[in-house]
Amino acid sequence: MSINGITLDLDSTVMTRYGAQEGAARGYNPAKRGRASHHPLMAFVADT
Predict the structure, then answer these.
(1) What pLDDT band is residue 39 in, cutting at 50, 70 and 90?
(2) Structural domains counted in the chain
(3) Which pLDDT value is given to residue 5?
(4) Nearest Cα to 34, choosing from 12, 23, 22, 18?
């Protein structure tokens, strides 16, 4: 099997955190303004 190329989709999301979780910080969080959150980046191989 030969692969000529792949499409890599990058997406970010906001995950609200509750309590004092390590690495959580206040930042952009439209659902819960002022709450600590993580903003991870996820990568997916777009396979059709």
Answers:
(1) confident
(2) 1
(3) 84
(4) 18
Contact 5, 42 (CB under 8 A): no
Tell me if the pTM is above 0.85.
no
Domain ranges, residue 35 = 8-45
Q: Is residue 40 part of a domain?
A: yes
29 vs 3, 15, 25, 44, CA distance in Å? 39, 8, 10, 23
Is residue 32 domain-resident? Answer: yes
pLDDT digits (tens, 9 = 90+) for 4-23: 788 899 998 888 888 787 87
Is there a domain that residue 1 lies in? no
User: Does 3 reside within a domain?
Assistant: no
Tokens 């980046």 sit on residue: 41
